[in-house]
């Protein structure tokens, strides 16, 4: 059994999220001394560097004369002189960067295609949804494993555009795949409803995990203030403006801060909303580059809030629980599947109800402690070892076919 992984997700986003799943699989393959290869050297990925495996040259360094450099200069000038521009322009950051790295990515695509055509690996597990490899895969004995992390592009196409490459490719890849993994039963149900012609027996569920309990204890920013925590991107379905509205009703009275960890800096639209609600001094954005920093933000927060309208799983729920941070989340099916009775749930369309629930539980040490205790128990049902071992079982089964 030999497994091949490609480079896609590592150019798509920084460390964390989907890439975290693949790093955990790599770790388990190393522990079991199972032969595998990734098309790039990720030894310094957490610092933001991707290297070519043979020459060790950096692959994600953008030329000064590239479209991406020009794009960044334009954005900086617009911000510097406070010219109005659409947030849509900011959302093109990763796409423009990827376009500017197209030569490096094409080189890697050819490396993967060569390995597939030569039948060097029994299983290929692409890390995202480009389909550059499909023509040659059809001429190979290599089996294809595909992971479906969510169906947000299908369910909220208005946020991504009808020409989004994931919408174009996901169905084609799913038909070609020998095995499909969904990260929750809720995601599996959505996927099979959307793609009813995909045989259910081809689809398995493997849960993610989210354990930060072994991260060292440090003092983070805002440790001397009482704050609520929001983690990750703040795209439309993440429901961030809804959270601002709920927070604005209690922020002054409770002398609370809302710390937004990760994701991009506040957009002009978000800044306007924050200003409109008179929250400039109480809503702050914090970048983080390590799981240690994130773990200590969770540890020091009064509670973690996850107001999404939709998710495929919800790793931050378990990350918060693993270090004793009480969890508030929207009452969507997947959050109930993951968090069980260890979270306080709210209607993600009623910010008044959320503000009332926040006041009720923030005023009760007993209820906050109850959520902590239930969280510690709930997180034991999930582990990265179990997740990675389940993938290994799929690889082994396909390698025998």
UniProtKB/TrEMBL annotation:
Residues 219-372 form the Glycosyl transferase family domain. InterPro entries: Glyco_trans_1, Glyco_trans_4-like_N. It comes from the Bacteria. Keywords: Membrane, Transferase, Transmembrane, Transmembrane helix. The keyword Transferase applies. It holds the Pfam family Glycos_transf_1. CDD domains: GT4_MtfB-like (cd03809). Residues 119-213 form the Glycosyltransferase subfamily 4-like N-terminal domain. This is Glycosyltransferase family 1 protein. It comes from Leptospira vanthielii. The lineage of its organism: Bacteria, Pseudomonadati, Spirochaetota, Spirochaetia, Leptospirales.
């Amino acid at each position: 059994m030999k497994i091949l992984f490609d480079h896609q997700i590592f150019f798509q986003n920084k460390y964390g999220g989907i890439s975290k799943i693949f790093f955990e699989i790599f770790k388990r393959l190393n522990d079991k001394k199972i032969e595998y290869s990734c098309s790039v050297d990720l030894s310094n990925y957490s610092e933001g560097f991707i290297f070519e495996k043979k020459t060790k040259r950096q692959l994600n360094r953008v030329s000064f004369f590239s479209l991406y450099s020009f794009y960044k200069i334009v954005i900086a000038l617009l911000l510097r002189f406070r010219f109005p521009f659409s947030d849509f322009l900011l959302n093109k950051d990763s796409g423009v960067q990827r376009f500017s790295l197209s030569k490096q990515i094409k080189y890697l695509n050819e490396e993967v295609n060569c390995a597939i055509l030569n039948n060097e690996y029994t299983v290929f597990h692409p890390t995202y949804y480009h389909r550059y490899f499909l023509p040659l895969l059809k001429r190979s004995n290599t089996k294809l494993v595909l992971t479906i992390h969510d169906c947000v592009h299908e369910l909220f196409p208005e946020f991504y555009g009808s020409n989004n490459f994931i919408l174009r490719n996901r169905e084609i890849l799913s038909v070609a795949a020998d095995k499909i993994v969904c990260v929750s039963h809720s995601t599996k149900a959505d996927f099979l409803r959307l793609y009813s012609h995909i045989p259910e027996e081809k689809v398995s569920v493997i849960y993610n995990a989210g354990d930060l309990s072994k991260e060292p204890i440090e003092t983070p920013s805002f440790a001397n203030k009482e704050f609520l925590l929001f983690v990750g991107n703040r795209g439309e379905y993440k429901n961030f403006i809804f959270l601002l509205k709920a927070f604005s009703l209690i922020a002054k009275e409770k002398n609370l801060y809302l710390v937004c960890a990760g994701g991009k800096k506040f957009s002009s639209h978000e800044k306007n909303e924050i200003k409109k609600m008179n929250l400039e001094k109480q809503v702050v954005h914090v970048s983080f580059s390590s799981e240690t920093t994130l773990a200590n933000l969770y540890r020091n927060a009064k509670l973690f809030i996850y107001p999404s309208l939709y998710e495929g799983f919800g790793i931050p729920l378990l990350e918060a629980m693993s270090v004793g941070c009480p969890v508030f989340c929207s009452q969507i099916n997947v959050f109930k599947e993951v968090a069980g009775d260890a979270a306080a749930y709210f209607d993600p369309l009623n910010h008044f109800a959320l503000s009332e629930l926040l006041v009720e539980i923030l005023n009760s040490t007993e209820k906050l402690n109850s959520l902590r205790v239930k969280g510690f128990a709930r997180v034991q049902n999930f582990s990265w070892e179990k997740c990675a071992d389940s993938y290994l079982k799929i690889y082994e089964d396909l390698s025998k076919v």
